[in-house]
Amino acid sequence: MKVYVTKYALTKGIFTIKAELLDGGNYAREVNAGDYRLFLSRSEYALTAEEAAKQAISKRDARVKSIIKRTKKLQQMAFDIKE
User: Fold this and answer.
1) Considering its fold, how many domains does the chain have in total?
2) Cα–Cα distance for residue pair 52/35, rounded to 1 Å
3) Does the structure show a pLDDT above 90 at 35?
4) For all residues of the chain together, what is the average pLDDT?
5) Residue 40 domain flag
6) Cβ distance 4 to 14 under 8 Å?
7) pLDDT beyond 90 at 40
8) Shortest CA distance to 49 belongs to which of 15, 1, 7?
9) I need a surface site. Which of 2, 20, 46, 59 has the fewest CB within 10 A?
10) Structural domain includes residue 80
11) Residue 24, Cα to own-chain centre: how many angstroms?
């Protein structure tokens, strides 16, 4: 079955692999000539391109929120110089 890998959406982008679904679809394991390479949890892959895009947008928004939070924390830092 073809699945869309979203685990690396913010670094490598979304790509497809041939995988078998395990545990009722909670996991996907890449199949390549009998070897297993990637093992993905449900939040790291999608079954459709639309679902993959939604997951990537969600990951992006969470990352932006995290960066904004860290930026605010850095801006609020005060430095005391002790002699």
Assistant:
1) 1
2) 25
3) no
4) 94
5) yes
6) yes
7) yes
8) 15
9) 2
10) no
11) 21
Domain that holds residue 44: 2-75
Residue 37 has pLDDT above 80, yes or no: yes
For 40, half-sphere exposure in the C-beta direction (CA atoms, 13 angstrom radius) is 25
Lowest mean pLDDT among 19-28, 30-39, 71-80: 30-39
Distance CA 51, CA 55 (A): 6
The stretch 6-27 carries a mean pLDDT of: 95
State the pLDDT at residue 33. 61
Q: Count of residues for the chain?
A: 83
The answer to whether residue 66 sits within a structural domain is yes
Structure tokens at 49: 């391109």
- Residue 69 counted as domain residue: yes
Cα–Cα separations (whole angstroms), residue 38 to 10, 32, 42, 44, 71: 17, 10, 13, 11, 34
